[in-house]
Amino acid sequence: MKGLLIILALLLQQAASAQQQHTFGYGDEHFLLDGKPFQMISGEIHYPRVPQEAWRQRMKMAKAMGLNTIGTYVFWNVHEPQKGTYDFKANHDIAAFVKIAQEEGLWVILRPSPYVCAEWEFGGYPYWLQNEKGLKVRSTEAKYLAAYRSYINQVGKQLAPYLVTRGGNILMVQIENEYGSYGADKEYLRINEEMFRQAGFDCLLYTCDPAKDVAKGYLPGFLPAVNGLDNPEKVKSMVRQYHDGKGPFYVAEWYPAWFDWWGEKHHTVSASYYANKLDTLLGGGISINMYMFHGGSTRGFMNGANCYDTSFYEPQTSSYDYDAPLDEAGNATPKFNLFREAIAKHLPAGHTLPAVPAAKPTIVIPDIQLTRSSSLFSILPAPKSSPDPLTFEALRQPYGFVLYRTKVQGGKQGVLSIKELRDYGIVFINGERAGVLDRRFKQDSLEVTLPKGLVTIDILVENLGRINFGPNLLKNEKGITSQVTFAGTKLSGWQMFPLPFDDVNKLPKGTTAKGEAPAVKRAVFNITTPGDTYLDMSAWGKGCVWINGHHLGRYWSVGPQQSLYVPVEWLKKGANEVVVLELLKPDQQVLKSRSTPILDVLNPQ
């Protein structure tokens, strides 16, 4: 009898599982979910840009605006930070992100291309690929394909169980990412398909490209999603041209906003204008994925940079607010409300939208006095020595800073020149600041006077973010990537001090900061009731902030971003610790907070 009960229980479990199975496919005009037309209304959220504890709240907001699907990239450099070392835990637990979406009644569009762009460091590629001699990203080169295959297999282990073909909520999977803007090798795209299939992605695969690049980037037989269009007839014409005259019609990146970079104004677009565009697209039967629905913040030195040619370099800000419908803290904006109204017009009969959750409370923390201050020069690790300067890559250091040091005989004046500085350098002569060099302005040299005797030259170099888009992806080494000369003579005999700042809790105690040396400042502050807040960094110079060990991002007085968002999830009742790395104004010691961000203030450079 007991055996019969067990068998009956298993049969009931299998029946329940079968009831949860769904089918997803293509019709001539529409996506088909369980055989019925389905209009995908998706919004992009990137799990590393949002605290894991806040994922569910952001998804509830997505449902309240009318989204039925969440889109996300999968970030290679997050999951394989060093070759062969994988990380799918905590804020990198992409499977948990997908599962929460399913629990909240949301489908998922997965974009696990090894290349993501996304205003993300190296476009998502791990820095160590550059140490593989001869490796060429986005190509059929053997070392790249081997590294790619290993990675995508690990992603498949995490996510294949959540495919709609296996009872999950992942409807489709994108291969590559806007490849037509980079190349046109169909063999490479076919290899992508083969690797995805072997990794377990036995579902619908698709490509996405800007309209002008679809011909180069689509893979015959796949749905060619189009990015950036907001005219329904143009979308349909483009898709039909490359999909046997049929649909469905999908704008994989519909842009109702834009991102920011240091030294340029904060980007905003008209909410009402794009609400009308959204209404038109949905009314025309087009499925969309808005990029971004919620941007969040790019922390842990993971911002990318634009550099289409050698004439400019534009590192992106830590705030990825994006002027999105959901702001950096996860609250509804006027754009959210207008988009919600537009979506409500196109809901299936009998469907209504859930109420919009109330805005999250904010707090203002009393001024924090950072009285504990250590000179950066007093907490240097053991150096690595070389006749010539070594890059970050040669030092096996992904991000952060490296201090380069050499000694020369002084008593002379001349030009100190750093060839191919990447990206920001502060020069010190015997510990005194001599000047700042900034790749954004092609600043790579300065006139210096060396005092008599043996002189120590220090150059603190910051990686401001590897290029994430365009033809220069393979020119992404960081640090001093060539040579340093003084008065025309090459300098040799270098010590390199790695300063990745990947765990501020492990920093040694140093001597009190003095002069113009960069400083690491600490303080403990108390909170009675935690809430979201913003640190006002407008009086500071340049650096980074950590709260309770969590990296909040970079700040830089040039703007437009002048604040750092502090998520309530990273604060606690009682004592909290803040750490500030200040590069340019070490005398600052008061940290203020506010209830709103400052994202639109530029200062003279």
Short précis:
The chain contains 10 helices and 35 strands. It is an alpha+beta fold and 605 residues long. Helix 9 (271-283) runs parallel beside helix 10.
What secondary-structure arrangement, pairings included, does this model have?
Blueprint: H1 2-20, E1 24-26, E2 31-33, E3 36-38, E4 41-45, H2 55-65, E5 69-73, H3 76-79, H4 94-103, E6 107-111, H5 142-159, E7 170-174, H6 186-198, E8 204-210, H7 214-217, E9 223-227, H8 232-242, E10 250-254, H9 271-283, E11 287-294, E12 305-306, E13 314-315, H10 334-344, E14 368-369, E15 372-375, E16 384-386, E17 401-409, E18 412-418, E19 421-422, E20 424-429, E21 432-438, E22 445-450, E23 454-462, E24 467-469, E25 479-480, E26 484-486, E27 489-490, E28 494-499, E29 519-527, E30 533-536, E31 542-547, E32 550-556, E33 563-566, E34 574-582, E35 590-594
Parallel strand pairs: 4-5, 4-11, 5-6, 6-7, 7-8, 8-9, 9-10, 10-11, 12-24
Antiparallel strand pairs: 1-2, 2-3, 12-13, 14-35, 15-29, 16-28, 17-23, 17-28, 18-22, 18-26, 19-25, 20-21, 20-23, 26-27, 29-34, 30-33, 30-35, 31-32, 31-34
Q: In angstroms, what separates the terminal alpha carbons? A: 82 Å
Mean pLDDT metric: 95
Q: What is the correct CATH architecture of the largest domain? A: Alpha-Beta Barrel
Count of β-strands = 35
Give the count of helical stretches: 10
CATH topology of the largest domain: TIM Barrel
Q: What would CATH call the class of the largest domain? A: Alpha Beta
Query: Into which percentage range does the β-strand content fall?
Result: 25-35%
Tally the structural domains.
3
Which class best fits the helix and strand makeup? alpha+beta
- Specify the CATH homologous superfamily of the largest domain: Glycosidases
Name the overall outline.
globular
- Ranges where pLDDT stays below 50 over 5 or more residues in a row are 5-19
Q: What's the gyration radius in Å?
A: 26 Å
Biggest β-sheet description: 8 strands, parallel, barrel
Roughly what percent helix? 10-25%
* Spatial order of the strands forming the largest sheet: 4-5-6-7-8-9-10-11
